[in-house]
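Sample entry (110 residues):
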Amino acid sequence: AILKDEYKVEVKEGIEPSKEMAAIATDRGMHVRIDTAENADFGNSDFDTVLFNGTPSYIQDLKKAFENAFKALKPGGKIIKACDLLTEFQQGFKEIGTDESRTSRDQPPI
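Predicted structure, serialized as tokens:
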């Protein structure tokens, strides 16, 4: 509710590798595909926002996951990283060669 109420971001679609977690999200009204962030085709310029909810330690190929996410963003779109282990995300950004504060499609990873 915080994303929607405070930031006007409404999460309607998702990609989730766990069938059990996907079922919970579906019960909450989301359209969820069983897949991984690094393997899924998010589309091209289809989304205003891409949300990574959780820790990047679950993502096998963080660089590929972020490449997919940046490809999916509309110009000016944003990536939101929501996790309890922010330092892991910061390390992930270093591994893919970008600064953790650059999360706009207008500034894709190097």
